[in-house]
Design a protein that fits this description.
The chain is of the alpha+beta class and 317 residues long. The protein has helices at 30-41, 110-119, 141-146, 185-195, 221-225, 229-234, 253-260, 302-316; strands at 18-24, 46-48, 57-64, 79-87, 89-91, 100-103, 122-126, 135-136, 139-140, 156-168, 172-179, 200-210, 213-214, 248-250, 265-266, 274-280, 283-291, 294-300. Helix 7 (253-260) crosses helix 8 (302-316). The chain starts with 17 loop residues before the first strand and ends with a helix.
Amino acid sequence: MKPNPTTKPAKRYRPLDGVLLFDKPLELSSNDALQKVRRVFQAEKAGHTGTLDPLATGLLPICFGEATKFSNALLDADKTYRTTVRLGVTTTTGDVEGEVLETRAVTVTLAEVEAVLARFRGAQQQLPPMYSALKHQGKPLYEYIRAGITIARELRDIVIHELVLLRFDGNELELSVRCSKGTYIRTLGEDIAAALGCGGHLSALRRTAIAHFDLAHAYTLEQLAEMSEAQLLATLQPVDSLLPTMPRLALDEVQIKRMAQGQRLSLATGLPDGRIALYGAQGFVGVALQEGQRIAPERLLSGIARAAAQTIVLSQV
């Protein structure tokens, strides 16, 4: 069969490693954003860290190739948001997507706002919302609430590290929030508005930071679409940018090969017990778990493992 001349050749996806800081636009799911960025880079393997709702914008780190192995490092990280709370109007979902439940007059003062915000700083417990992706018996909670079923949820321990009032104009609060993992900003906004006595909902949400990653260094889809191949590659941060605070251990070539073959090392490193980042002459090679003087490989770059496997085969020839 002759090829159809009008058929465009399929794009070839390639191995690519690194981390892109992406500025997710409004009304695009995190997975849709991931697929669009992946096509721009023509990357074989990609994943995102820290899902953002379609109605939220901002920082969405996207990991390519080997970086996907270490993306869990961001799961426990603090996150920073800039959000707007519309006072006086409560909705079914806690944001602008829901139906209006109640409208009240707003008569709060700046002093009252500051006093209420002070109560929400620090360690506390929060009840996850029904309109969330939190799962119960394998299904997200939002599927139950859409069917008219409310599921009992357990309070979660969270920490609001910073809660700063950026703007108050009588009907709206604009806030900057730095919080621990598991914090629902929608719920925080609703709780603050309820404490003010008028109720409210989130009208805007933008993530500005995850751990050390900052939105100021992120790229939009439009910016990426205009870049050359070299410019695209220059946007990627190295794989170990996901592990900036992890203790580092330098190994020689023999030690790296032993680790790649699944062997443990016995070393007095002077480092605290826990996960450590491993480095060789070629740079970052993976992560190991240290307990006393015992160092066990946990997750290594694929190239390191392949080289070790090839060494074993050659030694058996």
